[in-house]
Amino acid sequence: MQTIKFGLDLDGERGWHAKDALGESTVGPMGLLNLLETQLGLTRGDRSRAERIVQMRACLEAALTGHRFYESSFKADEFGTASALLAWRDLWYLHGWSGEIPAAAGARLEDMAEIEALARGRVSPGVGQRLADIEAALGERQPQISSIELVEPLEDLPAAWRRALARLSARVVTPSVPEPAGREGTLLRSLQAAFLAMASGDAVSPIAWRDDGTVRLVRADSRLAAAEWLAVDERQGASRIVIAEQRGTVVDAARGAADQPQLGLAEPSIFRPTLQVLPLVARLVWDPLDFRSLLQFLTLPVGPVRSFARRRLAEKMAATPGIGGAAWERAKSAIAAHYGDEAAEVLADIGFWLEQPRFKSSEGLPLTFLSERIERLLTFFQAGIASADPGRRLAFGSAYSQSQALARSIATLVDQGVKRIGPEALDRLVSQAGASGVDNPRLDAQAGADYRVRSPGAVTEPFDEVIWWNLVAGPLPQPYLWSPREL
After folding, report:
1. Cα angle, residue 281 at apex, residues 280 and 284 outer, rounded to 5°
2. 8 Å CB contact between 41 and 480
C-alpha cells in the first residue's frame, strides 16, 4: 500500500526535505491523476491540447447557425476561438459541471449546451472529465493507496477532486491549523500569527517593523545585482529554500559565476533552436517567399539540410537574395563538390525544403503537402533522439513531440474533411503544438544546491531560511465574463 501527499502546486516541485521514504509519494494534480488512472486501468492515448483544440473547432463549426454568440470571433480566428471555449469547458468540468445547462439560462450558455452535446463524443476528455471517470470506477475497485495527506484544506480543492477523493477507501488526512514557528517576540512570529488570523477571517492590526533579523527585505539596483548578492549570501549549516516564481534563470547564472551549485531554475522556452525548425518550415511554404524566415532557417544551428550547405546558401542569400538563378546554381555546385559521394542526397534535401512549390495565402496550403513535410521532420528529429548527448536528446525529443502534435492535429482536420489551411490558422496550430517550450538541459539542479520551488504553495515543510526571489505583486483577479443571470 502507498501513502500520498497531495497538493495543487506540487507537480514537478521539491519543496520538502529529502528522506528515505519507500512507499511514499508527493504529487500534484497530474501526478495523482496519472497514478489513479494507472491503478484503475483507465489509461488512454495521450492527446495534446493542440489536438483537442482541433477537435473542438469541428464542434463549433458543426454548431453554426448564423446566430451563435461566438460566430464573429470564429470567422476571424477558428483555432483561437476553439481554444478559449475549450478552456471554459475544461474549467467547468473541473469544478463539477455535469455537461447540462438549465433552460432559460441565457443565449450564451444555451449555445454552450448545444456545443457540449457535440463535444462530449468528439473532444478528448480534460482533467475534470478524467476525474469523473475515476469517480465512477472507484465504485467497482480501489487503488493500492492507504492514505492521502492533503496540503490544502479539502474545501479548497475543485469539486471534481473532492468527489473523487470522497470515493476513495484510503484515509484522507486534512491539514491541521499550523502554529507560528518563529521565536516569541520576533517580527517573523508576528507576521505568521497575522497570516493565520487572516486565514481564519479575523481582523488584523498593522504590525510595526522590527529589525531583529528574522525578516529581511533586500533591494538592488538591478535584478542581476540582486542575484549576485544572493549567490554569495550563504549561511553554513542552515536549511534553505528559494521561491522563484519567475526570472530565476539569472539566479543560476550568478551562482555559476560564484562557483555555487545551480538550483535548476531555467524556464521553459519556445525559442530553443530545435523548436524553431517547424515554425520556419511552416513559413517557407507561402508565396511570396518570406526572406527573413528563409535566412533564419539557413542560419539555425540545427536543420534538416546539412550544416555546410545551409551556411553556403545563407552566404549566397546575403549577397544576392532569391532562390534560383546563376548564383544559386553556383552555390549548389560548391555544395556538391564539398559533399562528394553524398552530394545527391544533400541536393535532394535542398530541393525538397527550399525549391518546393509555394502557395498563395488566398488559396491556402493543401494539408497533404504539409503532412509530407511534417513526416520528413519527424524522421529528422527521431534520428537526433538517438544521440549520446543528453542535451541533444532532450532538445530533439521536444521538437519531435511538437511535430507529432501538429501531425495529429493535421490528421484530425483531414478526417473532418478539411483540405486546405491558411497562414494565420497554420501559425496558430504551430504555436499551440509547441506552447509548453522546453527547459535548458544544461541548467539542471546540481549536487549540493538549495531546495527551490516555483510556487510558494509547494513549500510543505519548515526550513531555517526561506528566500522569496523577485517578490512582486501578483496579477489582480479578472472579472467574470458572465452576467449575474448566467452565474
Report:
1. 90
2. no
